[in-house]
Amino acid sequence: GRGEAGLWGERGDMADKWSDQIRACGLFFISIVVLMIIPLVYHCFVFLTALPLWETSPASCVILLLSFHLLFFLLLMSYWKTIFTDAGGVPYELDEAWISELNLANRFGLEAEVSERVSEVSETSPLTVQSAERKLDGRQRYCRKCRKFKPDRAHHCKYCGRCVLKMDHHCPWVNNCIGFRNYKFFMLFCSYATMTSFYVALTLFTGFVNLLVQRRTIEFGWVEFEYLVVFGLMAAVAVVLTGFTGFHFMLLLKNMSTIEHVEKRDPTKKDQVNPFDLGRERNWGQIFGDNPWLWFIPVGETRGDGVHWETNEAVQATAQDV
């Protein structure tokens, strides 16, 4: 009735306001990283740490600068690609087919079937989708907010206001959803951020130790203050990102998203087999590709279309028996 419609409208308005706040926070976080953290770390390492070594140890200076800039370049490139690569939305063809072939009563009631005209297209077309994920009552997954059919592993992001293919999570630090098309770049960004943080922190720590060993008098000024700030920041980031990045690599090798990992905690789903786990080697290749030379470079596209997903033999055998 009107009361229920009003309630849903109020909830929708609240969700929109909350989404706008999250987007604003995302832009704020990006501004902090780009305008404050990156220049501060770069200045401290290059101008205060590496270049002063040129007079006493040119080789050490060159090695430090080359190693740092290689990591720094890959980090910035991965960060850029994570921010500006669309995670992937549900293809228009899916929505168009279901709108033309089905009505809302079928979607919300009995399980819907695509007509023969739609099923006659190519097996790789987004229109021919055999889902491994369904609701508890066996119905096809459908997003009431987007009013779209949801392929396997797709979820609605309330901050982006749409369904995202193989959605992992919405990351405020990149102001973007992490999903099918940018998950490789996100993994590389986390990896290079972790390595760069460790590299800078260990280099600065080595400098501190050398000062203590040589028993030099330390005058605490702005330079020393910058050293302490950057060292503390990099050490904290390295510790946090080590666990975070390790967790995501664990999920990657299991071919599982963060959302799917959380859903598996549900007592009704904990015994279910992950239908998308194809083994570590194939799971890795699904994200990073088949060319080892491109695994750790933020280029290329993710294998597949984000709609059709290969399932493991256990699920395929079950489907054949049925």
Strand-helix topology:
Blueprint: H1 2-50, H2 58-84, H3 92-101, H4 104-108, H5 116-119, E1 142-143, E2 148-149, E3 155-157, E4 162-164, E5 169-171, E6 176-178, H6 183-214, H7 222-253, H8 258-263, H9 280-288, H10 313-321
Antiparallel strand pairs: 1-2, 3-4, 5-6
How would you describe this structure to a colleague?
The chain starts with a helix and ends with a helix. The chain contains ten helices and six strands. Helix 1 crosses helix 7 and helix 2 packs antiparallel against helix 6. The protein has helices at residues 2-50, 58-84, 92-101, 104-108, 116-119, 183-214, 222-253, 258-263, 280-288, 313-321, and strands at residues 142-143, 148-149, 155-157, 162-164, 169-171, 176-178. It has 322 residues and is mainly alpha-helical. The longest helix is centred in the N-terminal third of the chain and has 49 residues, at 2-50. It has a two-stranded antiparallel sheet with strand order 1-2. Strands 3-4 form a two-stranded antiparallel ribbon. Strands 5-6 form a two-stranded antiparallel sheet. Strand 1 and strand 2 form a beta hairpin.
- The tally of strands reads 6
What's the gyration radius in Å? Answer: 25 Å
Shape: elongated
Q: Main sheet: which strands, in order across?
A: 1-2
Give the fraction of residues assigned to helices.
Answer: 55-70%
Q: pLDDT under 50 segments (min length 5)?
A: 1-11, 101-105, 107-122
Largest sheet: 2 strands, antiparallel
- Please provide the ordered H/E string of secondary-structure elements: HHHHHEEEEEEHHHHH
Strand content: under 5%
The helix tally amounts to 10
What is the straight-line distance between the termini? 41 Å
